[in-house]
Amino acid sequence: MTLGHVWLVGAGPGDPGLITANGLAALRRADVVVYDRLAPHELLDEARAGALLIDAGKSADNHTLTQDETNALLVEHGLAGRRVVRLKGGDPYVFGRGGEEALALAAVGVPCTVIPGVTSAIGGLALGGVPVTHRGVATSFAVVTGHEDPTKPHEGVDWARLAGATDTIVVLMGAARLEGIARALIEGGRPASTPAAVVQEASTPRQRAVTGTLATIAGVARTGKIGAPALFVVGDVAAFQQTLAPSALAPLAGKRVLVTRTRAQASSLAEALRLEGAHP
Ligand SMILES: C[S@@+](CC[C@H](N)C(=O)[O-])C[C@H]1O[C@@H](n2cnc3c(N)ncnc32)[C@H](O)[C@@H]1O
Q1: Catalytic residue at 36?
Q2: Cα(265) to centroid of ligand 1, in Å?
Q3: What CATH number did the domain enclosing 192 receive?
């Protein structure tokens, strides 16, 4: 029996143009594409006609696949000799459970290649207007999960230790816990006046951002109705957000544009518009 091959492909934070050249090549050659909710769905148009597209967010009976079920699906198609792309939002190894999938494939000997992606934690943040480091301002950063409840004992992130450990702190999956996280960082010794920002749906036409300080950010985000998926960034670099937001730098950035041309003309115009920051 010929073994297949699984590519764990990072699709980037949301803008379909942010997948890598290798990721796109793998996608175009795949027999099976298993995709996540956060991977830009426009990319599925790049799969070849006849490729099997599987939403890992839903099974045949409409429940969300567990991680074990997703692993089993990749193993099954890999053992059956298929070329499988596992398309994930951002980078597969940044809170993407890509490592678990690669281990499951290694355990049964199915070849697996990871194709890194632009993580929302750095690239998404950049498009939100926040450089994760900046000379003289921030020389270190940490990317952490906000999924655990900071008010409960024994949760995963040691917020008190983190508070002073790095200049920039980027919290993923923390949109619902801004208040608790901000409080935990202040209690850990980070000044309440530290700049902070929240960027929702970075790199997509729906991108929105708010800024404040550790003391104010949860309230500002609530008033602005900012929700998941969002990046919560704490540190002096967050003060750049309003100056470096794409819309402040380039006239077409963030604009939605309807392209009405033949398919061949439309794709080259769409490419030019995307480079100007627009969303064709
Ligand atoms: C399960 S993690 C996956 C992260 C992904 N592997 C990456 O490298 O970006 C999902 C979290 O990533 C963040 N995220 C992903 N895409 C985002 C986007 N376009 N804008 C803001 N946050 C995003 C959010 O915090 C979301 O809750």
Answers
A1: yes
A2: 33
A3: 3.30.950.10
Residues 243, 277: one domain?
A: no
Indicate if 68 belongs to the active site: no
For ligand 1, whether the C-beta of 207 sits within 6 Å is no
Reading the block at residue 102, the tokens are 């690669």
- The answer on 255 and 216 residing in a single domain is no
> For ligand 1, is residue 235 a contact (CB within 6 Å)?
no
Sheet containing 208-213: give its strands across: 141-145, 168-172, 230-234, 195-200, 208-213
Beta-bridge mates of residue 184 = none
pLDDT at 58 over 80: no
Q: How do residues 188-234 score in pLDDT, each as one tens digit?
A: 999 999 999 999 999 999 999 999 999 999 999 999 999 999 999 99
Residue with tokens 């969303």: 279
Question: For the chain, what is the domain count?
Answer: 3
- Taking only the tens place, the pLDDT of each residue in 237-272 is 999 999 999 888 888 988 899 988 887 778 888 889
The amino acid that residue 262 corresponds to is: T
